[in-house]
Amino acid sequence: MRADLAALFKALPYSVEPMDAWARPEGYWLATSPAHPDSPGWTDSEQQQVAELRARERELAARIVGHDFWSVIAEPERADARSQLRHVLAGGEMPEA
Question: Which residues contact residue 17 at a Cβ distance below 8 angstroms, ignoring those fewer than 6 apart?
């Protein structure tokens, strides 16, 4: 899920809306490219893909956090248990429900 969203963001233009090329002023501290080409913006389809993946990510997060399982873990240990859950699977991906 997150990998899909990350791959999509990497493939999309840097700007959601069409934007002219621009360059960062000299001396700026970021180590990214100082110049950016024209951005055609995202298509309606691309925006829809992002919205769907974000909605699915929120849905899964809510299901995990709100699951009855967490009521059997003492409240002080819940945050640590949830953090450990991220590392259960080697790829960091949660199985699809």
Answer: 39, 41
